[in-house]
Amino acid sequence: MPVHPYFTAIFSGEGEPFAEAAWDTSGVATEDTAVEGPHGPVPIRTYRPEGALSGAILWAHGGGFSHGDLDMPEGHVVAVELARRAQAFVVSVDYRLADGEQTRYPVPIDDVHAAWTWLAGQAEFADAPIGIGGASAGGALAISAALRARDIGPRPADALLLAYPFAHYPNPSLDWSLYPEMATIPARFDTASVEGMVRNYVGRISDVPADALPGAARLDGLPATRILVSEYDDLRASGELLERQLAELGVPVELWVAPGMTHGHLNHPPHLPEIDESISFLAKGLNG
Question: Rounded CA gap, 48 and 79, in Å?
Fold first, then answer.
C-alpha cells in the first residue's frame, strides 16, 4: 500500500500529529524509580497491570542513541499498552544518551543491562518469562543487552521484541522496488545521518564493536524474536537482514511489515489500526 495518508499529510505540512493528551493508564499502576548501574543510578519507570501477571518486559525507547526519554509515546504509550496487552510487568529504561563526548558506547548498553539485571533478580518472575525489547536505537540496545544476558547472565531473555531496529553498520540497502515511493519521504536515513549517529554513539565509523550495532555480533542462542518493521523506512533493510540472520541460525523469528508506516510510527499513539496492530504484534511475543 502507499505511504499512509496520515504521514503524507504531516510530511506535506497539511496535517497535524495526533494530540498528545495524557495517555489513559487506567488499570496500569506506574512508578518512577532507579536501579544501580556501573555509571550510577539508571532511572526506570515500571508499569504493573491489574490482575495476575504473565511475565515481564524490559523496554528501551528509540532516538538515535542521542534523544528520547520515558515520556515520549515510543516509551510511555508503548509501555502502557505492552503491560495491558501482554498482561506483563513492564520496565521502561531511561538509559544515558550518547553525547559524542563523555557518554558513548558502551554506556547505554551498560544501563540497559543494569535494568535487565535488576528485573531478572525479581523473585516474582523467577519462574515466569521475561523479555527484552526496544525501538530503533533502543532495538539495537535491546539486542546487545540480550547478548550480554546470554553470555554473562544473570539469566537469558525468553523473548526479544524489536521495533524497526537499527542493528547494522553500514546500514543495508533497501530493495530497489521501494525506491520510487521512498523518494517522497523527507525524513530519510541517508549516508550522512547514519554516519553521524554512529560517530556520536561509538566515536568512529571504522572498527565498530560488534555489539554496538549487534547485527555484526554472534547471534546464536538468542531467544524467540519478533521484528516489526515499517514499510517505508530506510532501516527496514536492517530488520529484514536480522530476520534472515536469526532464521539461518535456527532462532525462532517472526517479522511483520507495518503497511503504509514510516520509521518511528510507534512514536504516535495507536489511533491508526496499523499502529495498534504493531503494538499487539510485539505484545504477543512474550508468551509465544
Answer: 10
Active-site annotation holder among 233, 234, 238, 265: 233
| 233 is annotated as an active-site residue | yes
- Per the residue annotation, which of 4, 76, 113, 263 is the catalytic one? 263
| Cα 177–chain centre separation | 26
State how far the Cα of 157 lies from the Cα of 115, in Å rounded to an integer.
Answer: 13
271 flagged as catalytic: no
Q: pLDDT, tens digit, for every residue of 84-132?
A: 999 999 999 999 999 999 999 999 999 999 999 999 999 999 999 999 9
Q: pLDDT per residue over 216-275, tens digit each?
A: 999 999 999 999 999 999 999 999 999 999 999 999 999 999 999 999 999 999 999 999
Catalytic residue from among 4, 113, 136, 230: 136
Distance CA 201, CA 40 (A): 19
> Has 136 been annotated as catalytic?
yes
Domains of the chain: 5-283 (3.40.50.1820)
Q: Report the C-alpha gap between 124 and 262 in whole angstroms.
A: 38
The one-letter amino acid at 152: I
105, 130, 103, 136: which is closest to 118 by C-alpha?
130
Location of C-alpha cell 530488520: 239
31: its cell numbers: 512508578
| Burial group, residue 123, by CB count within 10 angstroms (0-12, 13-18, 19+) | exposed
What sections of the chain are H helices per DSSP? 5-12, 76-86, 107-120, 137-152, 179-182, 191-202, 236-248, 273-283
